[in-house]
Structure formats: structure tokens, C-alpha cells
């Protein structure tokens, strides 16, 4: 069965040099957490302005409803099952014996091969041992944390959280209230240092993953009594800070754009913003479900793209797209080679810049026994039930039922069967590809 592989649709040869690429990824931000996606309570003026000047996707999806699986797909451009990182066992959430293999080709390695300066600022979560850190995966510079900040000290079995620069520990148990600020400062320094050459900045924010943290500047709206009620790293006592955490990330986006503009490189810089999965405590807007689930709220996420004079301002795109599509998209921008074997994503540039429709494709999810497939408006959802009974099977028409309230499986048995057969074929495809070593 053929699967969508997009070998590099290059940007115009008239460009003096390929564009800079800035990819910003929030951690556990929901579809409904941004103003331009309908939130009326959280202020996100910079993201809203970015959407107004660029493109906003309404049907963009993370490859998984969890952190590591989505990041694996994002970095490699293929389904995370083919990388072997579709799930991380609880006992391996730190000191991961299971990490992204150095044999995988990342978008950083692809762009670095054509002269880009590359940096990762933020959270990695694809292996914290030195052999698997970002400097070994194509990033010239790395500043941030190797895994989530929800493990120490309130989980006593985990070691102190390291803040790292390259492969060296800068600090143990860093000040998490100012982590967004620290990452923003590092990102701006990298941009300034590389203003005269093509660069890739991948900025996966550690926030708003729980326990949420925010600097004093954004916490000052809360009363002394509210702030005094916070119990260390206790997640529940920190939930009220969530909106401020989103607003600080929005501030960070504004600082990045401000730096790009001040350096005179706005026209030659592509900026994209998304989330790694649905919300844990935030809003999925009109969608059902949240992080860890394969209802739409678990994997449909914001995606905003801006490229001055290349992407038409204010365009709203309803096409289905996924995290894994960003590797081939960035490779096309940078005129970089794609891996020859493991690319499942498609190049979004013709859609973004020319308004060309994507070829119809079926996309898939599988996470902890839950399975889903999407083709056009139709979504198949198969979920194990807690009680001793067969797997729950649902069929939904998302154009008419975005909140997935009406199961049409009994009404459209042929459509149900068709998607089930496609899912079975996909499982064979991705499972067979796990042992496949990639190459240029």
C-alpha cells in the first residue's frame, strides 16, 4: 500500500538564501487556550497578531496525545511508531533507556547539512543520557531541560532536574518560575548571533506542563492569599496560575518577533507555533477530550504560521495537517535533503504559500491501546474499555459533529469497515518499519 512521501518541493531559486526557521512548541497547551481560537479570558495578543498576519490552521494535529511520541514524530517526520517512541514506560520517564536512536535523521540534521546554524532552547524529552542529547541529534546549541519538570522533588524517586547548556549541567533544580524568561533570553541571543546566516531555532517550551510556573510579572494579578496557598510543586495548588503561564508564553513569542524585526530579518524568517498535544488542565475549546486521549481534544492543537510576503495574511486553513509534516516543510524551505526511507509527513509549503489543496490521505494515531484513523470528515475511534467487554468502536463525522457526540458506526457500517481495514494495513506498515535504519 503506498504511503504519502513528499520528496522536497523546493522554494524558489530566486531567493538569495533559504529562510530562517523558528518553530515554537508549547507543552500541553489546548486548542482553546488562544484568543484567535476562541478563548475570551486568556490574553494572547502576540499569537493573535501572528495569526492575523499569517495562517491559522483549524484542523492541525499532534501525532500523539502525549509529549515524547509527538516530539519523536515532529523531529523525524514520520510516525513515532517507526521510531519506537510511541510510548515511554513510567519507569523510564527519566534516565530513558529508551531514547531516540542516533540513527534517526532529525530536521536539525537535515538543515545543518545545508549550512544552517541550529539550536534547541527548551525541553527535549527524547533521551536524557549524554549520548542522546540534542548536540548528538543535529543541534549546534542546546539550552534547557532534558525531560519534564514534574518529576522532582515531589516524586522522590527521581533525581534533581538539570538545566543544561550543551551536555553540561548549568544548575540543578533551576528556578522554574523564570524558566520561560531564561529560555526566551537564550533564544533571542541565538537569533542575534546568527542574523547573517540561515538558522533554525526549535523552541519547545517546558510550560504550561504541570506543575505550572510563572514569573512575578505575570503572577502579580493574583492576590497574596492565592499565591500563599501554593504548596511547593503540588499541581493542584498551582492550577490557578495556568492562564498567566499561557500569557507569559505569548509574551515570549512577542519577544522573538520583536528581535527578528529589530534585526531586519523578518522578511526572511518563517515562524510557526503549535502545541505537542491537547491540554491537561487548559481548554480544548469545542473539542471533546484532553491530553492522553484520542478524542479530538487530545491531539487537535493550535498551529499558526507566519512568513512575511510568502503566506497570505489572515488566511484560515481547514486542511488536515500533522506535526510530522513540519520536517518535510522545513526541508523544502531550506532546500535540504529528506531521509530516503522514513518520511510520512508531507510538505505544507504549497498549501501555505500558494493555497494548493493537499492530496487526500488517511492519518492515524495509536496510544496505549487507543486507536484512531481520520480520512476527510470521517474519524474512526477504537478504545479499550475499563470493564470486561469488547473494545468501544466509534465513527464520527467531524464536519457535522466536531464534539464527537454522535456515534455513526451502526448507520455507516461500510465506512467503518473501510477505515478499520486502512488502520490494520497502517499498523503492519509502521510496525514493520521499526527496525529500518534510515539514510540520506
TrEMBL record:
EC number: 3.1.6.8
Enzyme class name: hydrolase
Cited Pfam families: Sulfatase (PF00884)
Keywords recorded for this protein, A-Z: Calcium, Hydrolase, Metal-binding
Domain Sulfatase N-terminal: residue ranges: 19-331
Sample GO molecular function, one term: metal ion binding
Gene3D superfamilies: 3.30.1120.10, Alkaline Phosphatase, subunit A
Family to which the UniProt record says this protein belongs: Belongs to the sulfatase family.
Protein's name according to its UniProt entry: Sulfatase
Organism: Nitrosococcus oceani (strain ATCC 19707 / BCRC 17464 / JCM 30415 / NCIMB 11848 / C-107)
Amino acid at each position: 500500500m503506498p504511503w504519502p512521501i513528499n520528496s522536497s518541493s523546493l522554494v524558489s531559486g530566486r531567493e538569495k538564501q533559504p529562510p530562517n526557521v523558528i518553530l515554537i512548541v508549547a507543552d500541553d497547551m489546548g486548542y482553546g487556550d488562544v484568543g484567535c481560537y476562541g478563548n475570551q479570558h486568556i490574553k494572547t495578543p502576540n499569537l493573535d497578531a501572528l495569526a492575523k498576519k499569517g495562517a491559522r490552521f483549524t484542523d492541525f494535529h499532534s501525532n500523539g496525545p502525549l509529549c515524547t511520541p509527538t516530539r519523536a514524530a515532529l523531529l523525524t517526520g514520520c510516525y513515532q511508531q517507526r521510531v519506537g517512541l510511541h510510548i515511554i514506560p513510567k519507569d523510564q520517564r527519566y534516565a530513558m533507556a529508551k531514547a531516540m536512536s542516533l540513527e534517526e535523521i532529525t530536521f536539525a540534521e537535515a538543515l545543518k547539512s545545508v549550512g544552517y546554524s541550529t539550536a534547541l532552547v527548551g525541553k527535549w524529552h527524547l533521551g536524557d543520557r549524554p549520548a542522546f542529547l540534542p548536540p548528538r541529534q543535529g543541534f549546534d546549541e542546546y539550552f534547557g531541560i532534558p525531560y519534564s519538570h514534574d518529576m522532582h522533588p515531589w516524586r522522590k524517586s527521581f533525581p534533581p532536574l538539570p538545566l543544561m547548556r550543551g551536555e553540561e549541567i548549568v544548575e540543578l533544580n533551576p528556578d522554574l518560575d523564570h524558566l520561560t524568561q531564561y529560555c526566551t533570553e537564550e533564544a533571542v541571543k541565538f537569533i542575534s548571533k546568527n542574523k547573517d546566516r540561515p538558522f533554525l531555532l526549535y523552541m519547545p517550551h517546558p510550560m504550561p506542563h504541570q506543575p505550572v510556573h510563572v514569573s512575578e510579572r505575570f503572577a502579580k494579578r493574583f492576590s497574596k492569599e492565592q499565591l500563599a496557598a501554593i504548596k511547593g510543586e503540588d499541581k493542584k495548588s498551582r492550577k490557578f496560575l495556568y492562564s498567566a503561564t499561557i500569557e507569559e508564553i505569548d509574551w515570549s513569542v512577542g519577544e522573538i518577533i520583536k528581535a527578528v524585526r529589530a534585526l531586519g530579518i523578518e522578511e526572511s524568517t518563517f515562524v510557526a507555533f503549535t502545541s505537542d498535544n491537547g491540554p491537561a488542565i487548559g481548554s480544548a475549546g469545542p473539542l471533546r477530550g484532553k491530553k492522553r486521549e484520542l478524542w479530538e481534544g487530545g491531539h487537535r492543537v493550535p498551529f499558526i504560521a507566519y512568513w512575511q510576503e510568502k503566506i497570505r495574511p489572515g488566511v484560515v486553513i481547514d486542511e488536515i495537517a500533522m506535526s510530522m509534516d513540519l520536517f518535510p516543510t522545513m526541508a523544502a524551505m531550506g532546500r535540504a535533503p529528506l531521509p530516503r526511507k522514513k518520511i510520512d509527513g508531507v510538505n505544507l509549503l504549497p498549501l501555505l504559500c500558494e493555497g494548493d489543496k493537499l492530496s487526500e490521505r488517511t492519518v492515524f494515531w495509536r496510544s496505549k491501546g487507543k486507536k484512531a484513523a481520520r480520512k476527510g470528515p470521517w474519524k474512526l475511534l477504537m478504545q479499550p474499555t475499563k470493564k470486561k467487554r469488547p473494545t468501544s468502536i466509534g465513527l464520527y463525522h467531524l464536519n457535522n459533529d466536531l464534539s464527537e457526540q454522535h456515534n455513526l458506526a451502526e448507520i455507516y457500517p461500510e465506512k467503518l469497515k473501510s477505515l478499520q481495514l486502512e488502520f490494520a494495513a497502517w499498523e503492519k506498515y509502521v510496525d514493520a518499519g521499526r527496525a529500518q535504519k534510515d539514510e540520506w
